[in-house]
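Entry 14. Ran structure prediction on the chain below.
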Amino acid sequence: MNRPISSINMKTFFIFLSLFFSIALFSQDLEELIIRGPYLQNATSESVVIRWRTETLMQSHIHYGIDYENLSEHIFLNNSTTEHEVLIENLPPDTRYFYTICSSETNCLEYDGTYRFYTNPPIGTNDKYNFWILGDAGTKNLDQILVRDAFYDFMGDERIDASIWLGDNAYNLGTDSDHQLGVFNAYPKHIRQACSWLTIGNHELWNGETFSNPPTGPYYNIFTFPVNGEAGGVPSETEAYYSFDYGNVHFVCMNSEDFGRDSTNAMGLWLKEDLLQNEQDWVVAYFHSPPYTRGSHNSDYEYESYEMREQFNPIFERYGVDLVLAGHSHCYERSNLMQGHYGQSNTFNPEKYVLNGTTGHLDKGQAYRKNPNDPKGTVYVTMGCSGRAKVGMNDFPHPMAQYAIDKMLGSMLMQVHGDTLTASFVDTSSTVIDYFQMIKDPTVDLTTVPNVQIYPKADFHFGPTQVNIEAQYEDEENISIYYTTDGSVPTTASIPYTNPFLLYESSTVYALACNEAGSCNLKSKDYVLQDSLDFNLPNWATSVYFQANPNPNNGHVYLQHNLPSTAQSTLNIYNLNGTLQKSQQAINFAPLQYYIDLTTYPKGLYIVELIVNGVNVGTEKVLLVD
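Output, structure tokens:
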């Protein structure tokens, strides 16, 4: 006979059912239920945020401790969620912790020694720190993985203290799934060991849901940034831009994309106050759209770039920012120590804006030196090639570049050790392609150092190459220049430079320029001379170099080039409307130099096109002035 279930039996039944599903849930492999992370955020000297995502609702538990075999501390949040965000605080600085994440006090992820973090050192501490710089990394392809693995190999067992991401971290639309593939699946080990500090790029905005004022959408939902000054710096009260300290380094994250690039708006006012109150030895600013580039993007015409240059570069330089990092353009371009250029590329004059025109290489005695009490000069780096690399424009690189390369993947190690900052661009073979060093030296007075430049700028030439050395210091005319071509560093006892000279073999040219007060500046330039250019090679045109010098000029236009005498070259001159003004066969006026007479033409901007053996190898803008 069937009997009705009593209310007590019914209650017992539901308790049993609930218990059954709970046991079923926790009997599942927790690793399968964790679909994102763990990853570290908003790290300070005394705290860290650990985040992760689970497939189903569960509580947030973390076990942690300084002993790998005894995670003696436990913290949990009682509410059930799929988006787990746990703040661990009251920690001692510069201390290693191991941890694991759990769905209950006992059901934990099986962890190993890679689940660890270090609290930040005390603010202001002077030690050795390693920062990994990634630009436009989140392409979700093999290129991204090649860059990642090469940097891991380059670092070996050395610790990465934090990573700086320059935007476009999650192609193509910045959706939640794009972040999953472009960030979390690509760097699982790194993001659970070191804090990632990101800035927003244009691709993070393409999903139509992400906005910065107020912050909303996948980018802001996924990451946790300081808003109350908890990591150092002045509170920004928004995750759209922020600052933090790591040891004796102050980082400033700007929003170049969708907050408004106006030095008088909230971000601009905050930046001034933050830099004014900074007490750290080093200051690094980073954002997405570069102030200077002629790579896959053009900083002359893209408003995000030129507005950042015009509105914020003066603030960076006024308050002593040492290094500005940006991505977006899929190449690598790096300036000298410079100051004061906020206009378009055709207004860049190295004699006016470059404070130190050397390579920045300490091993050649050419590190950039700044006086910490009068911190003039900033180095600007464009590096948007950690996930894709493209061909630069015909006039690549930007004229501010001390070194530049396109079509090359890579990322950067920025290392700060006491009074020295070293930045190294590392390619996919774990090779350092470019590097520079900056030293804080209280004895330096940059106003007494002449500027020196070595021409031509191209590295590769065919046949004898004419070398010209120029130096300038304020209004002084009696600047002494000394040079060597045998690789030795010149002194005031070396060969005096009086006129251009020819190189007949590959050489490193050093130039030492000294003013009347005896203050000197050293610069070097490597030249590789090749016997001939094989025009049958499919890529020969990419090796052609030509540049107008001087530019602007009075109509006497000299084009330096690196072509052999067998080149059949034609020069076409157009006005800005695209109308052909003049066409002539290019004949060497001097070794490796073409000449065009435009003295009868109206003053203004013209485009010079070089055709070699029927191939257009590039264009150069020429400005005619009185």
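Residues 173 and 207 are 5 Å apart (CA to CA). Will compare against last week's run tomorrow.
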